[in-house]
């Protein structure tokens, strides 16, 4: 059936601010869907309250509504314009729940809006645990023994009947919210209470726990004609018991027998066809008994998910884009394959490589959190790596994580504490993968590791191979490693730095030079959805060590944009927004725009955003070899947060041009000592400070500058490791901890301006002129990290004199640092005196927020200035904002019930929303202002 021509306008519901369990994979899906519908001549409107994402940008949709995700907002939109259909499957659980509520309140019917892509009955069948269980029994799909409970009494009866261990799954939640395992009777009451409270319908499923079974996912697409295809099989490295969002996952599935896989496919197709009127992407999770290969269904999600973003990037098959077309009437055989352009979308991708996804956690931000992984998701982001083998992809994924690991071990950070390692194997946390290898290195038998972890033996044998190879490598010196063995090491994912560490007394550069002498180079392979059976039209590459290089270098002038790697607290989706705009601006300025990034959830790693995409770790060795191959005019590091900025020194050393502000400008801003000296020279006030390399020096500095003091390491983002201390004892403790965690770093000690107001400026400088993008005043006092503060644009309570000084200092600092591009400055204001706390010559968290509030494409302008193709005077900048815009931080403390909600100089928020108010009499604003100091802590 071709396009339904009665659908001329569609509303896509977004997923709101980034929280643990619902991250930027839904913005990727929403952006893809919007562009896909616009291709069909359909007017697209988006409702989403998240200002940091590209999804809420004018380049994506015809109308963007930055409104709270409520039925009231939906009614406001429907009164303003004619909407024919609503697509709720792109915005995670938030969108489905809102769509369902609007349906129950009769809003869609009153405005004659159709729900496309899914119907309410399908949501009901899949989200209501009891309905789902009944349906599975009806169609002959196995499920674990379970009972539904709406009260304590029913829950206790169910537990008695089924027996322990149990799993509690609340209805209508995402990211395993409120769920958990119960191993013994004493734990049951608390777990049941949490589950009943977490479910919006106060309903839980009490189910027999199949701990230790293997977990698999299938990503499917179905059209209105009941055609179903399987895009990708995904195997969880971790067994049942760890939420799939917190599991290491591998695609395609590695340890499934063909018989079991065919059985799983058939069951998934049966499930998908049974859930009612549904056209689009769907995720099905199964559990398999490793001994008997019995299969049971865990759940089915009638929407795109975190896994479908991963599957899209893993296969090159754009699930959300195709799902949107299916929702408006097309069948699979009527849509072209987006990569080959010659085959139809009605075929299943084939992979001739292996994908590994590893989640990224931020437990360091939640002091006192229970870091053991379970049913409730706790990770804040993820990385994906592509290799020819599982082990190559696994090592590349470890290099992508940005946890100071050089790969899977072989980097001097391994543990030799057997007791700690064995505890970690039994109680999995973020570092269990590393401890599996550490256990093998210490001689723990492979079978013992399998029994404790329930990780499939095939994966363990692969990791064991690394241990054997490392022992062999230590027999050689750099000059006598046999070429074949050297090639094998590189094919197994070893970084030059790991090889240098294993050999001892050699540097990374020496290893690099030696392998180049031996003719061992990276080659780049294309992701083409069809294992090279048909020619692909999309330039989407990964590296490996083989003979044939598929990345053809053009003779155009090129720019490389470095991405921001995995999402984490302090570095989120706002940098992806910046990277996408950077790519678009570079293309407009006549360059071939090349992207390097490893985050599967983002729009910047969509294969049609850049002219060329390298899905690779933002890790020096990988970046260096891409630069050697492509020979760009330069590299943009300003848009990818601290990840990209950290590369600036290496690029500078190697004589590679940094586009925009120079390395020296960045270094002055990052080195608090150099920066304060600059301010002193310019006669700009700053808090008294000193630098210490030991606890003794720190005490001297603190006594000189006076308590309270702010303690922080150099070169960090998101306030990592910062604290406010008020006495010698606390200071000693803080400094010793910092120097232990960040060896070789210097500790900065500033006088903390107690009860000061905090504000910030963002600006663009072209070397001659400086344009202030926006000034924001924080509602909370100084001491709470700017990312955790409610911030108001423009300032609401600062005098003209203070605003004038902030603007003057911004211009003078931009000139002194010779900024080309973006600059963010943080200020503290006390007794009408303006102090400069820090300056960052790069894109900040707040630029996307200001760009949305004022409706000006600031990143596009800044990129063209960085490239030197434009000056500020070439742009006419007209701000559009009536009243004020408030940046609202959003926290995920509910995932860590044991953590106190205290705020300080270290950032803890996972995302943000935008809210517009007409004036300062607004009751919402007045409430915020009243509570402004409540959560300030150290």
Automatic annotation (TrEMBL):
Q: Which domain of life is it from?
A: Bacteria
UniProt pathway: Amino-acid biosynthesis; L-arginine biosynthesis; carbamoyl phosphate from bicarbonate: step 1/1; Pyrimidine metabolism; UMP biosynthesis via de novo pathway; (S)-dihydroorotate from bicarbonate: step 1/3
Q: Name one process (GO BP) from the record.
A: L-arginine biosynthetic process
InterPro entries tied to this protein: ATP-grasp, ATP_grasp_subdomain_1, CarbamoylP_synth_lsu_oligo_sf, CPAse_ATP-bd, CPSase_dom, CPSase_lsu, CPSase_lsu_oligo, CPSase_preATP-grasp
Q: Which SMART domains match?
A: CPSase_L_D3
Keywords assigned by UniProt, alphabetized: Amino-acid biosynthesis, Arginine biosynthesis, ATP-binding, Ligase, Magnesium, Manganese, Metal-binding, Nucleotide-binding, Pyrimidine biosynthesis, Repeat
Q: Which PROSITE patterns match?
A: ATP_GRASP (PS50975), CPSASE_1 (PS00866), CPSASE_2 (PS00867)
Per the entry, which co-factors are needed?
Mn(2+)
Molecular function in Gene Ontology: ATP binding; carbamoyl-phosphate synthase (ammonia) activity; carbamoyl-phosphate synthase (glutamine-hydrolyzing) activity; metal ion binding
Any matching Pfam family: CPSase_L_D3
Q: Which reaction does it catalyse?
A: hydrogencarbonate + L-glutamine + 2 ATP + H2O = carbamoyl phosphate + L-glutamate + 2 ADP + phosphate + 2 H(+); hydrogencarbonate + NH4(+) + 2 ATP = carbamoyl phosphate + 2 ADP + phosphate + 2 H(+)
- What GO CC annotations are associated with the protein? cytoplasm
- Boundaries of each ATP-grasp domain copy? 133-328, 676-867
Family, similarity comment:
Belongs to the CarB family.
Describe the task this protein carries out.
Answer: Large subunit of the glutamine-dependent carbamoyl phosphate synthetase (CPSase). CPSase catalyzes the formation of carbamoyl phosphate from the ammonia moiety of glutamine, carbonate, and phosphate donated by ATP, constituting the first step of 2 biosynthetic pathways, one leading to arginine and/or urea and the other to pyrimidine nucleotides.
- Subunit architecture: Composed of two chains; the small (or glutamine) chain promotes the hydrolysis of glutamine to ammonia, which is used by the large (or ammonia) chain to synthesize carbamoyl phosphate. Tetramer of heterodimers (alpha,beta)4.
* Protein known as: Carbamoyl-phosphate synthase large subunit
């Amino acid at each position: 059936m071709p396009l339904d021509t009665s659908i001329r306008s569609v509303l896509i519901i977004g997923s709101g601010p980034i929280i643990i369990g619902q991250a930027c994979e839904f913005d990727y899906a929403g952006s893809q869907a919007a562009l896909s519908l616009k291709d069909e001549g359909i007017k697209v409107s988006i409702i989403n309250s998240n200002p940091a994402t590209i999804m809420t940008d004018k380049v994506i949709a015809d109308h963007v509504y930055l409104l709270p995700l409520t039925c009231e907002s939906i009614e406001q939109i429907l009164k303003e314009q004619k909407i024919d259909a609503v697509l709720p499957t792109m915005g995670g659980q938030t969108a489905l729940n809102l769509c369902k509520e609007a349906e129950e309140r009769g809003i869609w019917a009153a405005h004659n809006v159709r729900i496309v892509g899914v119907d309410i009955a399908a949501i009901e069948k899949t989200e209501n645990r009891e309905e789902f269980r009944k349906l599975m029994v009806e169609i002959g799909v196995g499920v674990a023994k379970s009972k539904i409970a709406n009260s304590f009494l029913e829950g206790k009866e169910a537990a008695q009947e089924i027996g322990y261990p149990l799993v509690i799954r609340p209805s209508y939640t995402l990211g395993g919210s409120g769920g958990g395992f119960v191993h013994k009777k004493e734990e049951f009451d608390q777990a049941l209470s949490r589950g009943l409270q977490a479910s919006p319908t106060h309903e839980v499923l009490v189910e027999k726990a199949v701990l230790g079974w293997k977990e698999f996912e299938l990503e499917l697409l179905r059209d209105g004609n009941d055609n179903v295809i399987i895009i990708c099989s995904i195997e969880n490295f971790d067994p049942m018991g760890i939420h799939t969002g917190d599991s290491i996952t591998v695609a395609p599935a590695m340890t499934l027998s063909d018989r079991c896989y065919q059985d799983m496919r058939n069951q998934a197709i049966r499930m998908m066809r049974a859930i009612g009127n549904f056209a689009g992407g769907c995720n099905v999770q199964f559990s398999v008994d490793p001994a008997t290969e019995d299969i049971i269904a865990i759940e089915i999600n009638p929407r795109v998910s975190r896994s479908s973003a991963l599957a899209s990037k893993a296969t090159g098959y754009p699930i959300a884009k195709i799902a949107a077309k299916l929702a408006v009437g097309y069948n699979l055989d009527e849509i072209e394959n987006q990569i080959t352009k010659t085959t139809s979308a009605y075929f299943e991708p084939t992979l001739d490589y292996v994908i590994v996804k590893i989640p990224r956690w931020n437990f360091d931000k939640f002091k006192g959190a229970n870091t053991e992984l379970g049913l409730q998701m706790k990770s804040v982001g993820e990385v994906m790596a592509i290799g020819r083998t599982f082990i190559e992809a696994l090592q590349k994924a470890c290099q992508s994580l940005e946890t100071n690991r050089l790969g899977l071990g072989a980097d001097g950070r391994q543990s030799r504490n057997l007791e700690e390692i064995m505890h970690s194997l039994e109680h999995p946390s973020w570092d269990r993968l590393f401890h599996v290898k550490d256990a093998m290195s210490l001689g723990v038998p492979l079978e013992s590791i399998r029994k404790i972890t329930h990780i499939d033996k095939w994966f363990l044998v692969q990791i064991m191979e690394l241990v054997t190879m490392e022992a062999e490598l230590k027999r050689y010196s750099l000059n006598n490693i046999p070429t074949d063995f050297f090639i094998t090491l590189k094919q197994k994912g070893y970084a030059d730095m790991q090889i240098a560490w294993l050999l001892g007394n050699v540097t990374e550069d020496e290893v690099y030079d030696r392998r180049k002498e031996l003719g061992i180079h990276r080659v780049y392979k294309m992701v083409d959805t069809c294992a090279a059976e048909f020619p692909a039209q999309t330039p989407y590459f990964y590296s490996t060590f083989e003979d044939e290089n598929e990345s053809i270098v053009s003779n155009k002038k090129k720019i490389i944009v470095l991405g921001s790697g995995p999402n984490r607290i302090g570095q989120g989706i706002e940098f992806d927004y910046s990277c996408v705009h950077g790519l678009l601006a570079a293309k407009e300025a006549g360059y071939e725009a090349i992207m390097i990034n490893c985050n599967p959830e983002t729009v910047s790693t969509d294969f049609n955003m850049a002219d060329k995409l390298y899905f690779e770790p933002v890790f020096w060795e990988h970046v260096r070899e891409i630069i050697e191959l492509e020979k760009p005019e330069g590299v943009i590091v300003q848009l990818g947060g601290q990840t990209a900025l950290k590369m600036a020194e290496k690029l500078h050393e190697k004589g590679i041009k940094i586009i925009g502000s120079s390395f020296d400008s960045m270094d002055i801003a990052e080195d608090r000592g150099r920066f304060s000296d600059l301010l002193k020279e310019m006669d700009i006030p700053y808090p008294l400070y000193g630098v210490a390399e030991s606890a003794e020096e720190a005490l001297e500095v603190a006594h000189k500058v006076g308590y309270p003091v702010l303690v922080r390491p150099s070169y960090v983002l998101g306030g990592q490791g910062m604290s406010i201390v008020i006495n010698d004892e606390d200071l000693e403790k803080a400094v010793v901890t910092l120097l232990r965690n960040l060896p070789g770093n210097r500790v900065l000690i500033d006088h903390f301006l107690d009860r000061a107001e905090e504000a910030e400026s963002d600006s663009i400088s072209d070397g001659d002129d400086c344009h202030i993008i926006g000034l924001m005043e924080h509602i909370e006092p100084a001491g709470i990290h700017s990312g955790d503060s409610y911030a108001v644009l423009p300032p609401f309570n600062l005098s003209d004199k203070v605003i004038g000084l902030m603007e003057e200092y911004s211009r003078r600092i931009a000139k002194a640092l010779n900024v080309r591009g973006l600059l963010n400055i943080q200020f503290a204001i006390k007794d009408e005196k303006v102090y400069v706390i820090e300056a960052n010559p790069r894109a900040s968290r707040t630029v996307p927020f200001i760009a949305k509030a004022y409706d000006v494409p600031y990143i596009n302008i800044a990129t063209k200035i960085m490239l030197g193709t434009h000056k500020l005077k070439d742009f006419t900048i007209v701000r559009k904002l009536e009243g004020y815009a408030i940046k609202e931080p959003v926290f995920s403390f509910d995932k860590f019930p044991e953590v106190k909600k205290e705020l300080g100089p270290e950032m803890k928020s996972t995302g943000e929303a935008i809210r517009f108010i007409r004036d300062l009499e607004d009751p919402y604003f007045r409430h915020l202002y009243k509570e402004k100091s409540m959560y300030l802590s150290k």
